[in-house]
Amino acid sequence: MSFTNEQAYCVATYRCFEEKADFHKKAQSIAVGLTVGSWTDIPEARKAEMEKHLGRVVSVDVHEPAAGESASARYADIRIAYPDVNFSRDIPALLVTVFGKLSMDGRIKLIDLSFSESFLSAFPGPKFGLEGVRGLLGVQDRPLLMSIFKAVIGHDLPALKEQFYSQAAGGVDLIKDDEILFENPLTPIERRVEACMEAAEQARRETGQKLLYAANLTGPTFGLLEQAKKAIGAGANALLFNVLAYGFDTLAELSRHPDIRVPIMAHPAMAGAFYPSPHHGISAAVLLGKLMRLAGADLVLFPSPYGSVVMPREENMAIKDALLTGDAADYRYAAGAGSALSLKQSFPVPSAGIHPGLVPLILKDFGTQVVVNAGGGVHGHPMGAIAGGRAFRQAIDGCLADVPLDEYAEGHPELKAAIAAWGLKG
Amino acid sequence: MSFTNEQAYCVATYRCFEEKADFHKKAQSIAVGLTVGSWTDIPEARKAEMEKHLGRVVSVDVHEPAAGESASARYADIRIAYPDVNFSRDIPALLVTVFGKLSMDGRIKLIDLSFSESFLSAFPGPKFGLEGVRGLLGVQDRPLLMSIFKAVIGHDLPALKEQFYSQAAGGVDLIKDDEILFENPLTPIERRVEACMEAAEQARRETGQKLLYAANLTGPTFGLLEQAKKAIGAGANALLFNVLAYGFDTLAELSRHPDIRVPIMAHPAMAGAFYPSPHHGISAAVLLGKLMRLAGADLVLFPSPYGSVVMPREENMAIKDALLTGDAADYRYAAGAGSALSLKQSFPVPSAGIHPGLVPLILKDFGTQVVVNAGGGVHGHPMGAIAGGRAFRQAIDGCLADVPLDEYAEGHPELKAAIAAWGLKG
């Protein structure tokens, strides 16, 4: 069997744990079993024709347990190339091909995916992306600041509007709905959007600053487009979407639709059902990185390595790289050196447990192409939510001016109070 | 805080592993954090009004590690009741509420869900269900037999038709597409359905037996309904659907749609990304049992405990129970004793590694309300695929006649050859 690169392949990398298996044999059985079924059963006369449908083993890297490690730590990273001709150019088809039945076959985790140029070309990717979001806000030179509603369930429109205003007035760039706020009689989406956009306008008159409000897009799948149009019609200038509860293709369909003229923010709700196990599921970099960007998320939330909902720093950096890289080789199988990736960047939004004293660390880890996202760090500020927003903006300004934050805080009482309350890191 | 049952709640059960945590405190923080956010922050005057939005701790069962067990084995099963008033009556809203952010919060697995009567009433469930499928086939008194195409990728219509006929002629009741067969130029869905239904008709004239052909429903989410109508228009009398690649709500939307006049068979592709870890994800009984039935799957495939893709028997039985139970108490939180569940049954289809000699074991585990499902066990029969189907039907007949299969095989050469090839169990 020859393996030429002339044909288009998508490549899956698996980490596969087995104490005794012949991993090369296992790799072969995956490559054949998930494509043509059986190679030996194919009549000789048909083999030439069937070869283009056959999966290929790209590599098998076996990691034997180190001295003192248990035999159960033995694993191999197996890369299999699947011919594009076998599946349609959508994410469900790709995932069912590479990790449908195989996901149930013992201790195996999908740790990477790369795509053929042709598969990739079927995805317009983020409609706005990082630069587009910056353009809408007119902010090019600093990390953005996002604030999350505190409590929203059981609150009425005036309460929501007041909470919105107190976030906006502090100078935040984006405000998102709580992901657990669904259609409800107190704050239905159109009324909520109207009320919040009024509060945004009021704050803009005072701060001179634009703001994006991501309204939570929820409800039955086949009604999402209508629901989104209602929200946009009422003035929503962004949408929040619980992607994993609906599947990546629904995001892709929404994102590529011409009537969705606003950025989509992907929430990671349910992601913990997939990525944390070392032995099962899908890695965070694939789930919250590559697939979110491919499906067209303009901004992607994921657990930060700083707060209560913790993700190891290494996984965070892998998500960031997947959202920001411009190098086609990171996404495209057999891409030429130095060629540019066709997808716009998705804005990384590391979330949970963020307070102003963490800003130096966030900027060290993520650079300036990041959205600093806070909930309690805004609302819980000792001087109130408006001061909370200001403290974050001061922390960002201090970092960009390269002034140590404890020093910068001397002239900025909101930042000083935040550091006194929550400390300073980095 | 009083906790009355007058209000509607959906209840999630989590298995939560922590070496030192105060699990009662943790349970409280989940119940409050995922509903009203914070109880102490709510002004006294508003508490009466907010109480209906507050989550409640139903129970906390702590399992301390046994002597000799590692501290990391310490866990608690925590049950939290979430007020219906907080979420819309769809599966994404429920899952995002109960296991959105929480899924990322350490070692925690969603192991059970029960629903309020009101939430449940929003779901018509399977349109046909087990009895409906039996009715379409006219078979009431025995387990059904299903056969899976062997290899399909790269095959043209005549080859597919021939393979279909050789399965149908052996007496199988259902034939399903391979879940990795997508829209493709060789066998597009309408042409494929026409060819296969012709083969079904040819077999019916010979065997006198009806047959359901589940065509694989694939492609972009917002086009699935049109794609399904095309398949049904071309004669498909069932559909196969990779539910987890699209989300449960898409199944629910399809299943409840009046134009989907055929049973839907749920494939478990990607399920292994969720259920196998003891510490993360969603249990098989919730994922492939309760949620599939709630979303309206008429038949549900899941890994059998017999074959190469193995699931422990206990988990298999839990899925079966979830698909078949008629007791409302298994689904409904605070259901009255002995009340009947409103959902039709979903047909359980344990799959992978099935050969005729396993039929006694399958019937022992599942009774007669089961679909015996085979791929290699039909196609790999020493006397060919037609004989493969017959061998299974003979095995089923022998079991129902209460004759030991080795004895029954004496008068049935196809069964005898199957047992000689693969052995006999149970």
TrEMBL record, chains A, B:
CDD domains per UniProt: RLP_DK-MTP-1-P-enolase
Top enzyme category: isomerase
E.C. number(s) listed in UniProt: 5.3.2.5
Domain Ribulose bisphosphate carboxylase large subunit C-terminal: 132-422
Cited InterPro entries: Diketo-Methiopentyl-P_enolase, RuBisCO, RuBisCO_lsu_C, RuBisCO_lsu_C_sf, RuBisCO_lsu_N_sf
Keywords carried by this UniProt record: Isomerase, Magnesium, Metal-binding
Transmembrane parts of this sequence: none
Keyword Magnesium carried by entry: yes
GO molecular function: 2,3-diketo-5-methylthiopentyl-1-phosphate enolase activity
Keyword Translocase: no
The protein, known as: 2,3-diketo-5-methylthiopentyl-1-phosphate enolase
Native organism: Paenibacillus gyeongsangnamensis
